Amino acid sequence: MQTVTDVFHAAAGKSSFIRKMFEKGIELKQQFGEDAVCDFSLGNPDVPPPEAARAVLHKLADDAIRPLGLGYCPNAGIPAVRDAIAKYLSKQQGMELKGSDVMMTVGAASALVCFFRATIDEGDEVVVPSPYFVEYGNYCGHFGGVLKPVPTHEDFSLDVPAIAAAVTPKTRAILVNSPNNPTGTIYSKDELKALVDVVESVNAERAAKGERPLFLLSDEPYRAFAYDGAEVPAILPLSKFALVLGSFSKTLSMAGERIGYIAVNPALSAADNGAMMTTLTLVNRTLGYVNAPVIGQRLAAAICDTTVDLDIYKRRHDLMAKVLKDAGIEFTMPRGAFYFFPKAPGGDDSKFVDALLEEKILAVPGSGFGRAGYIRLSCAVDEKIIARSAEGFKRAKEKCQK
Fold first, then answer.
1. Going from the N-terminus, what domains does the chain have, and what CATH number goes with each?
2. How far apart (Å, rounded) are the C-alpha atoms in residues 238 and 175?
3. Which of 61, 269, 321, 356 is 20 to 30 A away from residue 168, measured at CA?
4. Distance CA 278, CA 262 (A)
5. C-alpha gyration radius of the chain
6. Which residues contact 286 (CB under 8 A, 6 or more apart)?
7. Which residue, 199, 168, 205, is CA-closest to 268?
8. What is the pLDDT of residues 279-321, one digit of tens each?
9. How far apart are CA 293 and CA 78, in angstroms?
10. Low-confidence spans in the chain with pLDDT less than 50
11. 0.70 cut: is pTM over it?
């Protein structure tokens, strides 16, 4: 008996590649033991939160028993928290933001969902460089939106002319994710400026016709994860049509607390009389999020200027690079995030993933991210697991090249 809509009846039978491999990992660990399995399927940060979180949580626990200590807060977030996150983002973006420019969200995911609800009508489009995070299509599809992937170059840099060509009168946003999941690519300032030129050109034409603008949306949950001197350029100062969203899931290892944000360029608010932020706040409520969790908001505000021990991720990054090189597996060195996106030996990502499974190594096929012939590996695991996988990668490669 079918009890749900046709769309979700079909979708329910197609859980994401990431979740499928994660669930397979649980099964293998139960069968062979934790130490026998090398699970690189899920980006679930295992590095402990900063030590400062302990004292803050103790204080928040004491405050919780006060009247309204755990009560509702304004839909856009606790005012003092919005102020703190605005200050945090002002340093990152190199421009002054106020609390009124920021909305606190239930993770970065709900920031995306709220933006899409606020800007997308049935049949509207969101252009995204490919490979991309698989859930983007679901997030905009909820509201009848259409995700339009545009392949990046071989080294995963942006193909700006192709992105420009993909923009139509129905396109509402260009969505970029840097550092990127799944590739670890950091888009350069020149690439972002070229994208801004596209946005500004399109919007000049739309303004002349009285049409709604094209936005440039930057998803930045991995901003702190940049290696070997790499820098993540600020996008907000480049255009009033740019918005930035992110979360503290990775930088503070608090993914389960679901705390994110979206920031609107003050110049946009001046131009639209605050309509974007007002609408985002309304949508946040009417979609049922109501407000971001208050304990998580206060925790993030108190420790947002620190991070988990990023040196741990750098060591893992370097070790995974060595394991792949020693196995003769081709890859572009990721400059950020905590993923690798190597080529599948033989070109068949599903076959390589199956060969790795035989070695009790879990990876995710690149097909799930819009780029067949590659696999994604998450380095959100202990170094011992990465080291233990070395011989398995070699054997799996040999199987796929026979």
1. 6-50+309-400 (3.90.1150.10), 72-303 (3.40.640.10)
2. 15
3. 269
4. 13
5. 21
6. none
7. 199
8. 999 999 999 999 999 999 999 999 999 999 999 999 999 999 9
9. 10
10. none
11. yes
